[in-house]
Amino acid sequence: MMDDERWNFFYATEIFVVRRYDLETIREAVYGRIKEVHEQVALGPDDPPLAG
C-alpha cells in the first residue's frame, strides 16, 4: 500500500509506520501529527496544555 500511494510514512491512532528508519521522515511525521492535534485543540498562547 505504501508503494502504491508513494507514502514515506503513515500513522493511525498515534502509531507511526515508516518504510525505513530515517530521522528526518520520523520527525516530519511526528511534528505533522502534533500540528494537526494542536489545530484541533486550538489553545491560546497563554493557555496551559490539557492534562492527559
Description:
With 52 residues, the protein is α+β, with helices and mostly antiparallel strands. Helices cover 44% and strands 15% of the residues. The protein has a two-stranded antiparallel ribbon. The longest helix has 19 residues. It is elongated and about 40 Å long. It starts with a helix and ends in an 11-residue tail after the last helix. The model has no long low-confidence stretch (mean pLDDT 82).
Unreliable stretches (pLDDT < 50, length at least 5) are none
Which secondary-structure class do the elements indicate?
A: alpha+beta
Strand content: 15-25%
Number of E-state strands? 2
Rg, Å, rounded = 14 Å
Q: Specify the oligomeric state.
A: single chain
Share in helix: 40-55%
Termini separation comes to 33 Å
What form results from the Cα inertia axes?
elongated
Describe the sheet with the most strands: 2 strands, antiparallel
> Averaged pLDDT, please?
82
Name the helix and strand elements from N-terminus to C-terminus, one letter apiece. Answer: HEEH
What strand line-up does the widest sheet have?
1-2
What is the helix tally? 2
